[in-house]
Design brief:
The structure is a single chain. By secondary structure, the protein is of the alpha/beta class. The chain has a single domain, classed as Alpha/Beta hydrolase fold, catalytic domain (Rossmann fold, 3-Layer(aba) Sandwich). Helices cover 30% and strands 18% of the residues. The chain has eleven helices and 14 strands. It has helices at residues 4-15, 70-77, 79-86, 118-134, 148-159, 181-188, 196-206, 230-240, 306-313, 325-328, 358-369; strands spanning 31-32, 44-48, 59-63, 89-94, 141-146, 166-170, 215-221, 251-255, 258-264, 270-277, 284-286, 299-301, 338-339, 345-346. A hairpin with a 5-residue loop joins strand 13 and strand 14 (345-346). Helix 1 packs across helix 11 and helix 7 packs across helix 8. The longest helix is centred in the middle third of the chain and has 17 residues, at 118-134. It is globular. 52% of the residues are buried. Residues 7-24, 319-359 and 366-374 have low confidence and may be disordered.
Length: 374
Amino acid sequence: MRNISDTIARLKAAKGKFPLAGAAVQPSRLSSLGDFGANPGALHGYCYVPQRLPGDAPLVVVLHGCTQTAAGYDNGAGWSQLADRHGFALLYPEQQRANNPNLCFNWFVPEDIKRDSGEALSIAQMVRRMIEHHGLDRERVFITGLSAGGAMTSVMLATYPELFTSGAIIAGLPYGCAASIPEAFDRMRGHGLPSERELEARIRKASTHRGVWPTLSLWHGSADRTVAHSNMDAIVAQWRGLHGLKTVEPEKSPVGPHSRRIWRDDTGVAKIEAFSIAGMGHGTPLSRTDDIGHPGAFMLDAGISSTRHIARFWQLTGTGTELSLAILSGKQKSAPFSGDAEGRRKAPLPKSRMPASGVGKVIEDALRAAGLMR
């Protein structure tokens, strides 16, 4: 079975180039990481280190989605702006077209999702380089990602759990749920996801870790037509047993029009939280009223800043909430909406009329043209 890079490259050669959504060039605040090791996954590495960074500062690793770049994702999500205010360093691994023509991290390629192999090892090498070079706190390393970057976040938390305190997966998929192109598309649609028992077993087999497991913040649009919402529930199922929460009922609370579930341990510490963003399609939830980040392709105005809240969940910011300014001030409109791939508001569509969007449509159209899927 050819991997997705080979397949898409052959389709492009045969059918001509197809457009890539969301690939607009953005001004960059990032710097090249430079040499960080053997780099078996052939990834690029970028970083952002605020001036006067305090000693033993935290590190946040950010993984972009398909068709995106490190600089573009940082511009949209606003992580470097928050890093300036709260004093933490950022690492941005970046895919290159030689590995994947659509700039997706290869979250389902077996060689790239094993410990000490491929892209997973490249990212781990980058993390260690940042810690050593900048004197960062090894006990406060966090990772987040969108879509394919969210699925790769699952990979890193499973294969290198000792490196990370916590992770945030946005519109992602559980670790080890696919090992081929057809399986990847099935899982993205929510079809054929492994059982809770099997999902947990796959993480336990991914490393020899026996210590404390990373906590999780999960985010998914209720109207996501690229990665089915059921994938967030599968990630919860995969991690509940690791945290000893199989019999724990989650706390449920509304956040404006959205919903949040929290699973706590016996001491009251939140181990897993899951946000369902009402009416939102495929992308990272942002707020136009916020002063960090910029809505755009796959960076969707949902009236809530996932970047701010994730930083708060990780205790990177000061006291007080980092949730949406609009929601807290009561300005959020009550009617749900669907954000398009450019981040604009539009009226909700019935599910039967919801269009396939973004990178999923790009790849699916190409595979259909070659007769590889129906």
